[in-house]
Amino acid sequence: MSDIMTKSMARNVFYGGSLFFIAIFGVLNVHSHLYAANTAIDKAGLNESVAAGKHIWEKHACVNCHTILGEGAYFAPEVGNVMVRWGVQDDPAAATEALKSWMDAMPTGIEGRRQMPQFNLSDEEYQDLANFLIWTSKINTQGWPPNEAG
């Protein structure tokens, strides 16, 4: 083999490497789709109330302060697993009451503490938001967040 790479040798290395990495990308892409299909989100629990809760989440821009499943701002706690932390994941009525109690107590007026604004939601909106957070807590996040409090 010569010490100098010719133009045709360089072209062959380029094309060969490109094809190799395109093939690797294709295999990883197929693997991702198969993995996602096998670990699908519980669509059976997805209903109008959950969708309405997501709408409330977006309407009040909760993501500007909270993270949900690791996405959002880090000003306030992670809420993707809040129903599990509160121990009310399996009881929607208790989850709604816990969320309503927490949000109605805000802002606390404690000086120097981060304060959540008062949104004055209706009982139905509290229920929808609680159902959304319950549904979110059932998503397989593969151990995320790494600690329970987010």
Short description:
This protein is mostly helical and 150 residues long. The chain has 5 helices and 2 strands; from the N terminus they run H-H-E-E-H-H-H.
The CATH class name of the largest domain reads Mainly Alpha
* CATH architecture assignment of the largest domain: Orthogonal Bundle
Write the CATH homologous superfamily of the largest domain: Cytochrome c-like domain
State which percent range the strand residues make up: under 5%
The stretches of 5 or more residues where confidence is low (pLDDT under 50) are none
Total DSSP E strands: 2
Q: What shape does the CA trace take?
A: elongated
Gyration radius over CA:
24 Å
Strand order of the largest sheet: 1-2
Number of domains: 2
Helix coverage percent: 40-55%
Structural class: mainly alpha
In round numbers, the mean pLDDT is 90
Q: How can the largest sheet be summarized?
A: 2 strands, antiparallel
Molecular structure report:
- The structure is a single chain.
- The chain is mostly helical.
- The chain has two domains: 1-40; 44-137, Cytochrome Bc1 Complex, Chain D, domain 2.
- It contains five helices and two strands; from the N terminus they run ααββααα.
- The protein has helices at residues 7-38, 48-59, 82-86, 92-104, 123-137; strands at residues 67-68, 71-72.
- Strands 1-2 form a two-stranded antiparallel sheet.
- Strand 1 (67-68) and strand 2 (71-72) form a beta hairpin.
- It is elongated and about 80 Å long.
- The termini are far apart.
- The model has no long low-confidence stretch (mean pLDDT 90).
